[in-house]
């Protein structure tokens, strides 16, 4: 078999599993569906442009030049917060590498003991005690980790996110530990901007109407009508959302926990993460340390691919191609494991079924036959759990 | 990271990877980053318990320092908010500074204590801050003492 082994350097973001899109060579990270995000951008930029075009010249002369200045500052702040929320890593937890996954499997096996054939094994749960409260850590079949407390798997982005709040289509990204404060500041500043524009629209119409009459005012500044409409509908939703998140922050809860009713107080269950003090809770969420991303998106790694020099033959594999596709996540058939930065230590083969032709790795035997034991142990009903709890449907609350 | 690879290359010449141990997170204090100091049985023959516990405790103090909610972190947060977080484009956050310190500490520990004993600690940030991965190497020349040889113990347990 004549094949040429080529090693090239790629950025790690190109090999990250999950359904994110990356831009600017890994600097920007978003969800796949961005349509609603573009709508958000359009609405904000469009409405503010109309405001600057129609209202600001009149108000600057007749009231104060500080009005447009403040509007510009507020607009820039809103855009900065929106872009920060949308483009940053929400706190994605990288998936377990094969050795870690096997280690965890062994621990689970040791805890569960022998399960008689034909019986469903018990669900994979680890109990930890946090501030005197027992919290259950669930096992994520896609990421092959026990999720840290407050983490959840987002089915839209196909990632486990730390301190998962919710997936917001308006910002085109998940809201998690790293970008929650930007999201909150975005909703807060957008509420202020909406109220500001709405108020000054009314002021402007009133002032102009005194001089020229109501109908003529509307004819002179047609943009006002549009702005008032947009602001009116935005006000109700965004201000309500800001109020809701202020409530959550004061209790140190996430949207996910609130919807599931995790700390609703029944069975004497209380939120173990709350400081029991509103100021402390707010300070922790809004002024806490800026957590770094644990996804090294722009790091370099080697990507070995073989270029077959003989035309007809596909690259020979010492590892069967399906090795990565038959993992314990039947819902995600094209999942592939990320390449290890130190291939000498990696014992698992790397086949990128999605993007590249499979690469033969002569020195890597399938030492982790994770295919053989795990499908028999994974109960078919257990996997949908990861998706069901990530979607924001209040099934648990109804129970 | 580059230096770690260098250590690894040296180890690779004369040693082969035998096993990996993963130290899990300790969540008893909440979601702050702490690792369990429980001494794994696989390391019993390789390193003295006080040395190991010292390393893990030191790492825990570093992480606690990074995540500490105090005057400095509030000031940093408020200042950053006032500049619409644009200041983060040019300034390094306190957490990042501590992470660099941790990286240097792990490298130093590897060189001085762990590599001579055929062990290697991986910086937790490379594993998503979920685990501290300790790789156990065996001398290629030695026979019989390898546990599971070059494969992780996954296949041998099955």
TrEMBL record, chain A:
Its EC number is 2.3.1.225. Residues 366-375 have a biased composition (Low complexity). It catalyses: L-cysteinyl-[protein] + hexadecanoyl-CoA = S-hexadecanoyl-L-cysteinyl-[protein] + CoA. The gene is ZDHHC9. Residues 352-365 have a biased composition (Basic and acidic residues). This is Palmitoyltransferase. Residues 315-328 have a biased composition (Polar residues). It is an enzyme of class 2 (transferase). The lineage of its organism: Eukaryota, Metazoa, Chordata, Craniata, Vertebrata. GO terms for molecular function: protein-cysteine S-palmitoyltransferase activity. One of its GO terms (biological process) is protein targeting to membrane. It is a multi-pass membrane protein. The chain crosses the membrane at residues 36-54, 60-83, 182-203, 223-244. Belongs to the DHHC palmitoyltransferase family. ERF2/ZDHHC9 subfamily. Residues 136-260 form the Palmitoyltransferase DHHC domain. It comes from Oncorhynchus kisutch. The keyword Transmembrane applies. InterPro entries: Palmitoyltrfase_DHHC, PFA4/ZDH16/20/ERF2-like.
TrEMBL record, chain B:
Belongs to the ERF4 family. Signal peptide: none annotated. One of its GO terms (biological process) is protein targeting to membrane. This is Golgin A7 family member B. Residues 21-133 form the Golgin subfamily A member 7/ERF4 domain. InterPro entries: Golgin_A_7/ERF4, Ras_palmitoyltransferase. Keywords: Membrane. The keyword Glycosyltransferase does not apply.
